[in-house]
Amino acid sequence: MANESVLVIGGGIAGVTSALKLADNGFNVYLIEREPVIGGHAASFCCKATETCSQCSVCLVPEQILKMTANPRISIMVNSEVVGISGGIGNFKVDLLQKPGFVDPKRCISCGICTDLCPCEPQKGIYLPLPETVSRSYIIDKNRCLRFKGDECNICQDNCPTGAIDFEQKLKELEVSAVIVATGFEIFDARENGLLGYGGYSNVLTGLDLERMFSTNESVTLPTSGECPQNIAFIQCVGSRNEYSGHGYCSQVCCKYAMRFAKLLQYQNPEAKVTIFYIDLQTAGKGFGEFYEECKETIRFVRGIPVEVYEISPNELEVKYEDLSKGEIAQGSYDLVVLSVGIAPRRDSWDLARVLNINLGDYGFFDTQDSLDSNRTNVGGIFLAGTCQGPKDIPESIAHGIQAASKVIQALKARAI
User: Fold this and answer.
1) Domain extents for the chain?
2) CA 223 to CA 236: how far, in whole Å?
């Protein structure tokens, strides 16, 4: 197995973990990511610790990514996607399309000359991403760059001291022994459930909105007034457990992040009242049952299904819900409503499944050959890692990534015997 290579498709936490496991076992790894930066969704999530750690595991993400970027056995290619594959286990030939990443991370020394000289104002067309993306190089934003607005501007390219800037698209072929698919997930668009008010009422937010607010400001305020919310409702299973929308599964993560956010909001404002509307609570996981019991001391849990959210005034929202414990329709008034949006399969999963000739399951996640093996696909030598196979939280995605890499090692060892 000396000098064998493995392709990992996807630069989220599952793909990163798989790449590290393989590299630590002597494999050369190509990790490709279709976005300009690696890290996936989890790289932008916030720490939810209060006076104690909430075990959200967000802190593990940048640690793993930094380990990977420092590993000489791992080659990272961003703005890249698989467009063709042939062969089989031990001798796959993979065609990659490298879209213009514009900045080669191997050559970029982060000197900042390009940003200083960029004529785009007020926002520069080339810049260093936010720290949580864990990118080592600058990126070009096509929405800002004058070159993509029709101007003949090459200032950054002409003045880059290392020749890191390239506007050309390229095809590349890789020879690898196995493939791990770790393309991640999409977050359900809450606008699809119009009755819950997202996109129409400013004080109706999603869990992802809270992630961004806490990451940026380390606090949450009402969009309408800038004040701290005093009465908050979390609505669970938005985009999950709904066969009519094609999402009949549980997303596994929503109950956990809602309770962690609820505690964080009360830590920020001890006077805040929090209600969580749920169908069934998922409290599996190490120590989470105890955390739930702790939450019940200060958080109101209502087993009910909200059917509509409407605005009474700019700072007051009415939630109409079916109270399942009482068998009646009830209403409650809140100044902030948070929709716990679930995990959805990527809309482009079908395209990659067609290229790799692997199967999709009923809900659009990649399917496995054996229901007892969550990593192996119907194609020998192609394995799955993370949420592309189904909903998982960060620790589960890390474990699944390690498991996928172990299955690759086992398969290649068996082939070599």
Assistant:
1) 5-99+169-185+345-416, 188-343
2) 21
